[in-house]
Amino acid sequence: MAGSESLDKEISSAVSSCEAYFEKVQSRKNLPKSLQETLNSAFAGIPVSSFPRVPGGRVIEIPAQTSVSEAVKILSDSKILSAPVINKDHESSLDWRERYLGIIDYSSIILWVLESAELAAIALSATSATAAGVGAGAVGALGVVALGATGPVAAAGLAAAAVGAAVAGGVAADRGIGKYAPTAVDRLGKDFYQVILREEPFKSTTVRTILKSFRYAPFVPVSTESSMLSVLLLLSKYRLRNVPVIKPGEPDIKNYITQSAVVYGLEDCKGRDWFDHISALPISDLGLPFMSPKEVISIDSDEHILEAFKRMRDNNIGGLPVVEGTNKKIVGNISMRDIRYLLLQPQVFSNFRHLTVRNFTTKIATAGEEYGLAIPAITCRPDSTLGSVINSLASRSVHRVYVGEGDENELYGVITLRDVISCFVSEPPNYFENYLGFSVKEMLNR
Description:
Residues 53-119, 291-349, 373-432 form the CBS domain. This protein is of the alpha/beta class. It folds into 2 domains: 1-110 and 207-261 and 426-444, CBS-domain (Roll); 269-424, CBS-domain (Roll), CATH 3.10.580. It is 46% helix and 13% strand. The chain is built from 22 helices and 12 strands. It has helices at 2-28, 33-44, 68-78, 96-99, 106-124, 127-132, 143-146, 151-175, 184-188, 192-198, 207-213, 228-235, 259-267, 273-279, 305-315, 339-344, 346-349, 357-365, 386-395, 417-422, 431-435, 440-444, and strands at residues 62-63, 82-86, 100-105, 222-223, 242-246, 253-258, 299-300, 319-324, 329-335, 379-380, 400-405, 410-416. The strands form 4 sheets. Strands 1-2-3 form a 3-stranded mixed sheet. β1, α3 and β2 form a beta-alpha-beta unit. α5 (106-124) runs antiparallel to α8. The protein is globular, with a radius of gyration of 22 Å. The two termini are 18 Å apart.
């Protein structure tokens, strides 16, 4: 009973958060009611089936019983950031509620492995590391395994390897192309997967376990017969990063629509009257940024890099502005993808608990393309147009643009993919109950 009450409270909190966010958006964006209704009507008339298909035309699925290591390999080899998780016990079911359990993504894997690495790092700094004969410089992707270390010491090295594999392969998909990131196999060596398949915790930990630990990526599909209005609301108000597309009566997923793909699509709408009108507005006229400066989660350049990743994990966000001084001058950007450098450089990983954000970003800037191109803080001004922000998000393949003001480029806010999509839609009364056949509470309960 207690567990059920706790779940109900969690769901209620999640729904309330979505409602509060969207109410703020609608009250601040100041679009004429007639224009908003016209936009909603237009998006409602666009079938989901008309949205461009994923590259290759086939959506990659990962079985729930797949090990973490094998899931990393599938995502890396396929150059994708996330994939639906299929329940093999109900593989033949035509009911998506039985067939799919959720969505696994690099963030989930990175966060889980980072926690494992953090715990194992304690052992590395204690007598167990000395007893195993492992020096600080030996903590690399496969270093501890090669030296014969076992237990928590080996786990630390394997944690480094797993995160390295995830981010090295994932950055390619994050940019939409593959030239900036080698696959996990190329980066870590042909024996990488053979090693982690034999070692704990990767040998016994399954994707199903990760889904239970990180529940913020539910499987919430729309039908091919649904409208793009449904998709846009799911990606904005309800904070989903991706929406699977299914066809009634058929088991396979037909498409997979992400926040980034929608913003790319909006960028391609230049020249259309409705888009040109809205995109020409200053972001301040649309109430952007929706968060006040005090609400923006940031990291000071003198703080430890581990604290930056913890802050992203605790707040379920993918990036932070790096700031300096009491006025919070924007001097850089840290994102989940940057862990690739931290874990692919053994000499850096061995000292990561003491490495500052400033030193870390300096190392990235001087690392070269071998470890992927670091993305600096992309900024705009309070008087920038929405169109310029959309262009920055699409052309730079980033998920957020920071708003800076004054001569010192002081942190004023942040604009995310979700925020941009929210500018174009509003939710008609009881829309999801009427058009998708299930309530928001049921979706978040999965």
